Amino acid sequence: MSKPIPRGLPPVPDPKEYEHLTEKERMLAGYPYRPADPELCQLRLKARDLCKQFNTTDVYDEAGRVRILKEMLHPDCADKKLFVEPIFRADYGTNITVGNNLQMNFDCCILDCAKITIGDNCLVAPNVHIYAATHPIDPKHREDNDDYYELAKPVTIGNNCWIGGQSTICPGVTIGDNVTIGAGSVVTKDIPSNVVIAGNPAKIIRYLYAETPEGSR
């Protein structure tokens, strides 16, 4: 039986566009990159060590957890008010930027091989996953050979958002301000501000203000 012919696959960038970049620079710029690069491996190991320290702190040591988080996350988070419950996991940590007054509940996971940005006053329920990590659709590039590579796409979450438990935010998604995401949702595309969404894939189920296209609350 003949193999199916792949159709409609996204084009692969010309290597000449990124051959001068390190694997880390390729990863952050959205180009194909090799995750086994020694620099990237070392950065992930550091993040895993900090996550382990964070997740094994004494239950009363909130200050210690905040200190570890601020060491793990992007330097812009150093002056932010953070409340994150263990267990928390991140791929690199340093590519995560959060606003002030972040509250994140148990068992959240962020794969930040591209930039992850979370705005002010965001509530993140238990077991929420946010992924910048992705892979080629063409299966030949997922095989263990010289063509293997991975990809990363940034995720942006606006201010005053509430992400319901066990929701998943997929690579490349931008979410506006004042968005509520129902529990168990899978967000696969950009979401405007001032809406309630839910489902798999997540869809708008309510507009918050009268100036929306529907013209009603």
Report on this structure.
By secondary structure, this protein is α/β, with parallel strands linked by helices. It has one domain (20-207): Hexapeptide repeat proteins (UDP N-Acetylglucosamine Acyltransferase, domain 1, 3 Solenoid), CATH 2.160.10. 17% of the residues lie in helices and 24% in strands. The protein has helices spanning 23-29, 38-55, 62-72; strands at 82-84, 88-90, 96-98, 102-104, 108-111, 116-118, 123-124, 129-131, 133-134, 151-152, 155-157, 162-163, 168-169, 174-175, 180-181, 186-187, 195-199, 202-207. It has a seven-stranded mixed beta sheet. A five-stranded parallel beta sheet has the order 2-5-8-13-16. Strand 17 and strand 18 (202-207) form a beta hairpin. Helix 2 runs antiparallel to helix 3 (62-72). It is globular. 29% of the residues are buried.
List the defining traits of the structure above.
7-stranded mixed beta sheet, alpha/beta, 3 helices, 217 residues
